[in-house]
Design a protein that fits this description.
Number of domains: 2
Strand content: 15-25%
Largest sheet: 6 strands, parallel
Distance between the termini: 83 Å
Order of helices and strands: HEHEHEHEEHEHEHEHEEHEEHH
CATH topology of the largest domain: Rossmann fold
Oligomer: single chain
Number of strands: 12
Structural class: alpha/beta
CATH superfamily of the largest domain: Response regulator
CATH class of the largest domain: Alpha Beta
Radius of gyration: 22 Å
Strand order of the largest sheet: 2-1-3-4-5-11
Number of helices: 11
């Protein structure tokens, strides 16, 4: 009797183990990149790093499809849906409509998108957005404190809703540090044209700017290259971009896309997928911040001031503007 019971329990244990192993093996997660590609040194690469962490720590099968142009979004999603993925990520605002259509058409597949919030989100879709203005304010403060020419610049990618918070958060931070600083700004209307980014930055440096912040994806590679050649400062975005020009990238406004991708994917694996809503990551949630490499070039005294400002933002004592109207009101109140 005891032997029979032990045998039954062992058989049940083995069966449960095999079912668990099969389930883990069956879970597949993939992502569709924006046109910057998976090695853009920016948010697409950060997202892929998040999925690589998913594979390493959670044992989930991960993959990606690169988009060379906007027309690739829909076919890439279709390929990944047909591939049996349990969760498919869209990395970037520009694929918002495509991923919404995919979610509605494929209710049994889960979807998530970076940098997009829907008015009505399907239960199998989650939006992830970041308070980019908060990290941008901090690097703007650093720029305002460290400029020697009282002239700095901002280079934006495209005029889409996700970029103005970078711009006006940065400008507000600059003015909070030093109201006398002149801020030049220009949009490249691209996220991949590095040559245009370099040309815009060179023009700003020639006009007297000594620090330029970019929120422009691959366009920013050109901004950083210009800073390197002109022996000026550039401020990176999304990832810690100091490695691109160790002596010329002053700091970076980080957006932890990797953490968001990991957390949402882990929720799915744990049966806690937060579909039908938008998740917001700011300073308080550890979703944005200045780069760890900032201490290489930013004086300790200024970093202490930044830490205090960071806490003020977290505590709600300092509200960072995200648009021109609020920015103008913010500056008027200084």
């Amino acid at each position: 009797m005891k032997k029979s019971l032990i045998f039954s329990l062992m058989t049940l244990f083995i069966a449960l183990f095999l079912v668990s192993a099969f389930a883990a093996k069956a879970l597949k997660v993939a992502m569709v990149t924006d046109t910057g590609g998976v090695h853009d040194q920016s948010f697409n690469q950060s997202a892929w790093e998040g999925l690589q962490r998913v594979k390493k720590e959670l044992g989930v099968d991960v993959s990606f499809k690169e988009s060379k142009q906007d027309a690739d979004y829909a076919p890439n999603f279709e390929t990944l849906i047909d591939g049996g993925n349990s969760l498919i990520w869209g990395i970037g605002f520009l694929m918002g409509d495509v991923i919404l259509d995919s979610a509605k058409t494929n209710p049994k597949v889960n979807f998530a998108i970076i940098d997009y919030a829907y008015d009505k989100t399907p239960k199998n879709l989650v939006g992830v957005v970041f308070k980019a203005e908060e990290a941008s304010f901090l690097v703007g403060y650093i720029a305002g404190k460290m400029t020697k020419k009282n002239k700095v610049g901002f280079v934006g990618g495209m005029h889409i809703p996700v970029i103005p918070p970078f711009e006006f958060g940065y400008k507000a931070g600059v003015k909070y540090a030093n109201k006398k600083v002149e801020i030049m700004d220009q949009y490249a209307e691209s996220f991949v044209d590095a040559a245009k980014g370099k040309a815009i930055a060179n023009q700003m440096y020639q006009k007297g700017a000594d620090i330029v912040f970019h929120a422009a994806g691959g366009v920013g590679d050109g901004v950083i290259e210009a800073a390197k050649e002109q022996k000026k400062w550039a401020i990176g975005v999304d990832k810690d971009q100091n490695f691109l020009a160790p002596n010329n990238v002053l700091t970076s406004a980080m957006k932890r896309v990797d953490n968001a991708v990991f957390n949402v994917t882990k929720d799915l694996k744990d049966g806690k997928f937060k579909g039908g809503q938008t998740i917001v990551y700011g300073l308080k949630e550890g979703g944005v911040d200045i780069a760890p490499s900032s201490s290489k070039h930013v004086p300790a005294a200024i970093l202490k001031e930044v830490a205090k400002i960071k806490q003020m933002i977290i505590d709600g004592k300092l509200k960072v503007p995200t648009n021109e109207k609020d920015y103008n009101a913010f500056v008027k109140g200084l």
